[in-house]
Every structure is written in structure tokens, then in C-alpha cells.
Amino acid sequence: MEFHEMDRAQLLETLKTDSLQGLSTEEVRLRQKQHGFNELIEAKKHSLFFLFFSQFKDLMIMVLLAAAAISFVLGEWIDAAAIVLIVILNAFLGFYQDRKAEKSLEALKKLSAPQVQLLRNGEWTRLPSREIVPGDVIRFSSGDRIGADVRLIEAVSLEIEESALTGESMPDAKQTEPLAVANPNLADISNMAFMGTLATRGSGVGVVVGTGMNTEVGQIAGLLHGADGIETPLQRKLQQLGKILIVASLLLTAIVVALGVLRGNDFYTIFFAGLSLAVAAVPEGLPAVVTIALSIGVQRMIKKDAVVRKLPAVEILGSASVICSDKTGTMTENEMTVTHLWSGGHEWTVEGAGYEPTGRFFETAQPVEPQRVPALYQLLQYGMLCTNATVHQKGQEYAIDGDPTEGALVVAAMKAGMTKELLKKEFTLVQELPFDSERKMMSVIVQNSSGKFFAITKGAPDILATRCNAILWETEKPLSVEKLVGIEDAVAAMAHNALRTMAIAYKPLTPQTTLFTEEAIEKDLVFIGLEGMMDPPREEVKTAIQECRNAGIRTIMITGDHAATALAIAEKLHISGANELVVEGKEIDTMSAEQLQVVVEQASVFARTTPEHKLRIVQALQQNGRVVAMTGDGVNDAPALKTADIGVAMGITGTDVAKEASSLILMDDNFATIKSAIVEGRNIYDNIRKFIRYLLASNVGEILVMLFAMILAFPLPLVPIQILWVNLVTDGLPALALGLDRPEADVMKKKPRDPAESVFARGLGWKILSRGFLIGSATLAAFLIVYDRNPADLPYAQTTAFATLVMAQLIHVFDCRSEKSIFARNPFGNLYLIGAVLSSVVLLLVVIYLPPLQPFFRTVSLAAGDWLLILGLAALPTFLLAGTYFFKPKTEES
Fold this sequence. Notes:
- The protein is α+β, with helices and mostly antiparallel strands and 894 residues long.
- The protein is 46% helix and 18% strand.
- Strands 10, 11, 12, 13, 16, 17, 18, 19, 20, 21 and 22 form an 11-stranded mixed β-sheet that branches. Strands 8-28-27-26-9-23-25-24 form an 8-stranded mixed β-sheet, with helices on both faces. Strands 1, 2, 3, 4, 5, 6 and 7 form a 7-stranded antiparallel β-sheet that branches.
- The N and C termini lie far apart (77 Å).
């Protein structure tokens, strides 16, 4: 018998599970051993061997290996061996960088894996979907991605979008009854849900019948293979730069060889000099260091609870000029607490904060017992009945499983002595009409112990009041204009105190009522009262908003709450001032696109909005040239998240579809984390610019010292193997360490970067050329001073030039840490850089002073006194231009 043919009892017996307790921890371990983890087989990964040898695919590396082969044929085996050794060292460095980047992306994938709710040991818990085993009991609701193939045992207005499997675009309604059909089409199996499909409405509970490759989607797992990494716009720009530099290097080689031959130099020597300059012109490590910089930045973001799903977002973060953020949970604590209640003209307050279910009730400062006040008791009782949230205790802490707003209603009722278990004995749930953002309400149909049916509805007061024709005011009375004004006054008073209001209503149903639809149930209701709840602002958010403002980033609050509530929270967070413009969703509906473009530049608070309003706000800001980061958590937020330049999903409360549509996931649902991510995004881009500046300035210096010598008819200041050593070894470690640099203190005091700007913008091109010119000049000066002293000892002069070039670059790397000056940052602020520079100095001393290596690198031992000349000239390029830092305003970038 197939699973879809089984009834509930047969299903549970076949899979040896319990719908009330789920599986035990021990049973889960046994089943994981038998079935493995719930994951699809991925495309075969490249071996470490393949990864290492892929480092030799670079065009310039191939040219070097060809040069080594020519050297070997011509009998210059020392040159050949040295070139091969350097290439192998460079390959190991590239291999290390690629492997680290690969591991970072693997860790990222694990962190962004879908989460599911599982019933284990009698308790619901949230775990990664890979932990699912056959027999597990799972539950899901609108917006959740189904984690495995399941046979449904509960379905409340459940609809699931299965187009990935069936090709049908419309969601399918689900039910729990057995199907007496053999081998039905997938689209006809209405009592099952399949891995990878999306719940679009309602909620459900099911028993897992297939995991991993034993699922329907496992049959088409090949579609998931071969997903390559995303190339960022910056990486593409740098690849284009690399191609230009390769063409330039080949032209440079031809020019050098032609000049050398015309001056009568030995062809072999001049050929290798030209080849060395070609290698110097191309920063071979550029793609690898960019990848590692992005990877390290992503890892840092993960540590700060921000998971990057799409690498381009890392770059775009540095350009963000507007953050559109939800209020609840993102800017606030997301621990809703009912503090005020209102019914029939009476108002009560409640003690306690958070989710601990203890606190007294007061009316005009006098304690009251809710059980003795019928209107208050009914308000609390019906509020609890119309929820799906539950409260559970973990040690000394209480937590909510479900929506925080519903959790607040449950906790308020628990303070009055009620529990869900006791209510289940008195009331039976017949049907649920789930909340959706269009209706802004939710209803349940219940039957009490006397057999009477009635509906309970909760929702936004302004919407729910229009569905009522009566109100509890001591007794049930018609909802007159006067009574309606009383409701509005109560809502306004609560909103003024930054309270979110939830209205509760009910409707008795006759025995003849059989059609439990939204249209039939949610009208002619009796208004019971209001529950006002507070979600306090997060303390760290106020600071984060101010820092964003200093960085030229504007914060806009977009919320579904009442306008007065939104404005009260916005004032506390300093998003807006008192009496500032607040725009409501109904006003947006009346605006043209052009009118909204004007309004979004004036208003910082948008209230009573729908996901469609969010989308229009994002589009209006983008039309104004803004780079927009947008937060969201619901299914209907997906269009706005996709449209925004940076879609930001909530990791805790966010639905799977919102996470899939986003570029960034906040694992703590905290606005301050967006600010931290922007800091990292800006720092990653800055670090890549530092690397480009360092490497290209160094390469310009190497090229110019050789060109100047040739043009002036001097002997070559550097031999080819020395240039190769500097370019492929000495430069590599400091460049990599620059990618690990921490953000500068003023990173959030700069205006957002123009995403279209060149990597050489803001004076970087001039810095590269000017520093490169001075490095080349200083190296040539060191060579000429020593050569003029003793023209017969050319190797000594060349070794001096070699040491000067290396030291000039190693001093220059500290200047690259800031776009102001070497004096703008603490030189010990990057210990990785200190270690890299010391390592490069040690390598330099080894090739100069170690006798076995001297023949390879054409070096000789230098006298101690010459190091004063070397260090003095090496420091000159950096400190000559850096000195102007002290004579400029500190806000100006040099």
C-alpha cells in the first residue's frame, strides 16, 4: 500500500512513530544511520590534486613555464630551476587561498540551510532540514519550504505551490483523507507535501515518508548540480583589467627586447628581462586575493549574525544609501507584552514584561481579579483561543513558539490563570481561517462544551470594527457612531504610548451554519475589546541608526502598525522628529508613481502598509537614484526583497521564500546587524582597493626601474629571477594580509560609494602612478650610487637595488592601509600584516645571505653599512608624500 492510500493509524504503524511524541533522540540516531542525512547528492567536487594543478592555468604562469623550458634547453638550468621553484611556491599560495575560499562557502551553505519544525521527544524544536529522518513529525505554515516528502495528518486551509514538480502555477489545496487511487499523478496527490515545495496558505502537520534522494525532488536532483559560484561586478571589472594588463605586458616585452637588441645587449638576457617585466606588469594574485577578501568578509559577517547568500551583495552594501526596515523584531526586541486592555469603556493595565506569565491586573491603580470581571476575562480567553502560539520554559527563561503578537495574547491570558490545555477541554477547534496581509485578520471556529458553535476573530482595530454591528458595553449593544468613536479614542490613546493594538470580536453561529468561509464568517461580528501591547525598541538600534545617518545612509521605517504607534517608536529611535510626516498605506494607494517619488524623500515613516506598498516604495526610491536595502520576512515580501538592491530577510521569523529572495539574512533579526554588515561591505571594498594600490604601485616601480635603466643605457639594475621573486613571492603575503585589515575608524563617516565608480576612482590611479614612480626612482638611485662606487662589481649593485625595491614595497604596504597617510593608522593594528612583512624580510635576507641560494638569485652578501642607504631610499617614496598629511585638514583624503 502506498502512503497516500493509508489512513492515519496505518501510516503511524508503518513508520513506527507517534503523532503526539514524535521520535526519540535514540530512534533518530538509528534512522540516520540507516537512511543517512536528508540531503541530495551533490555534483562531484574537485579533488585537492585538481585544485592545486588548476593554479597553473593562468596565461602568465604558462609563459613562465615556457621560459623555464627554454632556459633548460639553452643550458641555463639555474634560471630554469629558480623559475619552476617560484611558480610552485605561487601555486601553493593560490591553492591555499582557493581552498580557504571553498571552505568559507561550504560553511556559508550550512548556515543558510533551511530550518524546519520537528516533534522530538514530545517537544517541538527547530532544526536544519538535513536532520529529518523518515517517521519524523513536522509542521509548517504559510511561507515555509517543505523539508521532506510528508504524508499530511493535519491541514488547516493548507495550500502548497508545487510548480517545481508539477509545472502547475496555481497552489494546490491539501487535505488529510486517504486516496483510493493507485499510481496517481503527482498533482493529484492532495494528502501529501513534497520536499522543496512551498506552503502559500494555512498550516499543516505531516509524517515524513521520504528524505534525501528518496524524495520526489530527489528524482530530479541533477537539476541542482553544477551550481557555480557567483561572479561579482568587481571581479568582472578586475578580470577585464587583467586582460588589459596582459596585452600591455606583451607590448612591454616587445619594446624592451627591441631596445635591448638595438643597444647590443645579449638576446637571451634581454629576452628574460622583457619577460620578467611582462610578469611584473600582471598582478597574478589579483583574482585569488579578491576571492579571499570576499570570503573573509563573508565569514566576519557570519560571526556578526549576517549570512550573505549572494556575493554581489557584499559590494553593493558599501553603496547602500537607504535602509527600508520593518519595525517589529528588527528595530524592537520582538518580545511583545500586553500592558493595556480595553472593553466597553473600561481600561485595565497589566504588570510584567517579556514572556514570563506572571503579573497582576489593575483598573485605575486598583488590583482586580480577571475571573471576577466578565468582559476582561472574555477578552483574554477569546484572545488566547484565536492563536497558534505556545509558551514554553527553558530553564529560567520563557520563550514563544509562534508569532510574537499571538504570544503576547497567550501570556496575558496565562497571567489570568488560563492555559491552552484547560481551554482545549472546554472548547474544540473546528476550523481556522488563517491570517493574511490582505484581510489583516484571523478567525477560528470553535465549539464549546455546551455544543454551541461560534467564531472568534482578531485583527487590526480599524479593519475589524468595520466588520462589527454590535459591541459588548456592559451588555451586547448596537455599534453606534458614539461607540465607534470610543473604540477609536482607545486605539489612539494606546498608539500614542507606542502600543500595538489588537482587536478581538466574536460571532455566535446557528446550527444551520455549514459554510465556514471568510466572507460568511467575518461580518456582523460583536466587538469585545482591545489588547494593547508594547514591543520596546532595541537599545543598540538607536546607535546604529545614528551611525548610518553619519555615513550618509537614511533609515525609513515601513510597518503594518498604526501610524501613531509607528511614529512613537520612530521618535524614540530618532528616525523622525515629533509631528513629522507619516504616510499610511491608503494614501500610497491614491498616489501616482511620480507623486510617491517626491513623498519618499520627505517621509521617514510609512504605516499600515502592505507588501505591495513596500514594493512601490522601493521602486520610487530607486527611481530617485537611491541604492536600497530592504528588510522583509513574509511570503508577500519576496517581490520587494528581489527588487531592492539588497534584499534582507529575517533569519528567525523570516519565511523560507523570503530568505530565498534575499541577498542577506539576519540571523538575529536585528537592525544593528544591517549596520555591521554595511561596515564589513565597505571594508571589503576598501581592502580590495588597498590590494590593487599596493600591487600595481609595486609593479609600476619594477617596470620603471628597468625602463629607465634601458633608456639611459645603464646595465640592468635587476636580473629577471629577482623580479620574478619580488612579484610572485615577496608581494604575495603582504597583499593577502591587506585583505584581512579591519575597518578604519571613519568607515561609517563617509558617504555611500557610487556603485558605478571605477576601482581607480577617488585618486587611486594617481596614488598608484606616483608611488610607483618614486619606488622605481629610489631603486634606480640605490643601484646607480653603488654601481658608480664600484662599476666592476655589478652583482653587488644589483643586489642593493633588489633589496631597496623589496624594502620600499614593504614600507609602502603600510601606507596602503589608509587612503590618507601611513600616519593615519596604528602600524600594529593588523598583526597579520606585521607577520607577512617580517616573513618577506626573512625571505629577502635568506636569498641574499644564504650561499646555496646566491647563485640562483644572482645575489651577493651586502655590507651592514649599505643597509642605511637601502632603508633610507626605500622609506623615501612613502614618507615624502605622507608628510603632507600633517598639513591638511583631517577630513581631507590625500
